[in-house]
Design brief:
Blueprint lengths: L1 E6 L4 H4 L2 H10 L2 E6 L7 H10 L3 E5 L13 H8 L4 E10 L12 H17 L3 E6 L2 H10 L7 E3 L6 H9 L3 E4 L9 H9 L5 E3 L21 H12 L3 H15 L2 H4 L1
Parallel strand pairs: 1-2, 2-3, 3-4, 4-5, 5-6, 6-7, 7-8
The structure holds zinc ion (2 copies).
Length: 261
């Protein structure tokens, strides 16, 4: 019924209790999850989840916040993308939230890393899982400059304005909403969610972070994606089953390798 389009089950908060998490997912009718890679060093562990369990898949990429890790080349990403059960490139993108005294100009390394992911996605025709924080202008500009990509992608854990959402939709991207949608203060984001057509919406937990209300502040896990679906259903004035079905269909459409193998 439901799919968690973005979670980090290889992180220590969750990796120690995978069987319990899987039982909780089954109890909540969360059938499937996409396990997201954030460093090359982490890839084998994320990939192992996707090969061990038939309802988990994974991505290959290096998160923009990660420094002091192995820098990926296009070839590195293409090698990982060729492995079975890898269905996306990312998470990748730009994050200027924690500049730590640096200027945006100093973050050229992040833009270069994002470009490597865009080039890899073009060559292997896999969709991009895009992370953007305090950097939406540059993120959209780089994707626009990339021109037509064979498989578009998703702006995950969306927290940006309606204008950014429209720009992402114009680029052919999907918008994924996380537990932030349930936060009391997220009025503007709920307005954005009302505007995004349901056929372009995904839902995610980004667990272990960002647990939705009523679990806010606790460790998140994929079973809680139902609370994101519930909130989206209330915003759209639709039954939760409709949200579950539509976001599952969107997930299959965006990540066609999931149904291909
Ligand atoms: Zn992210
Ligand atoms: Zn993430």
């Amino acid at each position: 019924m439901y799919v968690d389009s973005h979670c980090h089950l290889s992180f220590p908060e969750l990796s120690e209790r995978i069987e319990q998490i899987r039982a909780d997912m089954a109890g909540a009718q969360v059938d499937r999850a996409l396990c997201i890679c954030t460093t090359l060093e982490e890839f084998d562990q994320v990939h192992a989840l996707a090969t061990r369990y038939d309802n988990f898949w994974c991505s290959a990429g290096v998160h923009p916040d990660n420094e002091g890790v192995k820098e990926p080349s296009v070839d590195d990403l293409l090698k990982l993308a060729a492995k079975p059960r890898v269905v996306a490139i990312g998470e990748t993108g730009l994050d200027y939230y924690r500049l730590n005294g640096r200027s945006v100009a100093d973050m050229a390394w992040q833009r270069e890393r994002f470009q490597v992911h865009i080039d890899a996605a073009r060559q292997c025709a896999l969709p991009l899982v895009v992370h953007t924080r305090s950097a939406s202008d540059d993120t959209v500009a780089m994707l626009r400059d990339a021109g037509d990509l064979p498989a578009s992608g998703v702006f995950h854990c969306f927290t940006e304005t309606a204008d950014v959402a429209r720009a992402a939709l114009d680029l052919g991207f999907y918008i994924s909403f996380s537990g932030i949608l349930t936060f009391k203060t997220a009025t503007e984001l709920r307005d954005v969610a009302r505007m995004v057509p349901l056929e372009r919406c995904l839902i995610e937990t980004d667990s272990p972070y960002l647990a939705p209300v009523p679990y806010r502040g606790k460790t998140n896990n994929p079973a809680y994606v139902v609370h994101v679906a519930q909130q989206l259903a209330a915003i759209k004035g639709l039954p939760i089953e409709t949200i579950g079905r539509a976001t599952s269909i969107n997930f299959d459409r965006l990540f066609p390798r999931i149904t291909a193998n």
